[in-house]
Amino acid sequence: MKGFILALRKARNEDSVVTLLTRNERRVYYRFFGARHSILQFGHLIDFEVEGEDSSFLPRLRGLSHIGFPWLFEPNRLLLWHNFVALFEPHLKEASTIDSFYYTLLLEAAQKWDKQNPKRLICESYLKLLSHEGRLHQVDSCYICETPIYKEVALMQAFIPAHPACLYATTLPTTKIVAFFETQSTAHLEDHEVEYLFTLVMRGF
User: Fold this and answer.
1) Average model confidence (pLDDT) for the chain?
2) Shared-domain flag, residues 8 and 101
3) Where does residue 201 rank: exposed (0-12), middle (13-18), buried (19+ CB within 10 A)?
4) Buried-exposed string 112-128: b where 16+ CB fall within 10 A, e elsewhere
5) Could you give the residue ranges of the DSSP H alpha helices within the chain?
6) Domain count for the chain
7) 164/89 same-domain check
8) Among residues 89, 113, 137, which one ends one of the domains?
9) Domain identity same for 132 and 102
10) Each residue's pLDDT tens digit, 16-67
11) Which domain, by its residues, includes 147?
């Protein structure tokens, strides 16, 4: 079984409690002497086996191996990866059974992380998540005053559109945001525009 490590916390002695996102679940596991294992690092993709599923205690991880990516030794890319992965734990906290979308989203991003700008990947991935969850708003009217949006738009958390005057926020060309929503690509956006979108994503899913 494979999964991304969404959270780690110390238990007694050198044991660890590990939250993993697998293809269809968000599960919490116990690992004896987990603090001694370099494989157990936040954000890592691991292959593992489970024992004690029928126990009253947490199921236990065993047979761990790390599935690496070439960018893991690039500090800036790794920091952005950690920032991105950290958003998934609170978002999926109440769920136990999860469809494969979230695991696939992380896996596809990880596979592109050294080939593309990570901030652009984060913005594109988040847009896919909003669309998958049915939370992506059309850029036609302001969420605050409910009147039409024309040449310029501002975005709230979750990329909710509003008039710049209503939101007192950074102004973006409406045509660019419409294209971003339709294509799920940041290719036509300037770096400063991507930076603004990135700050919105970092507020939380």
Assistant:
1) 92
2) yes
3) buried
4) bbeeebbbbbbbbbbbb
5) 75-85, 88-92, 101-112, 118-132, 164-167, 174-183, 191-201
6) 2
7) no
8) 113
9) no
10) 899 999 999 998 998 876 666 678 899 999 999 998 777 668 898 988 999 9
11) 116-205
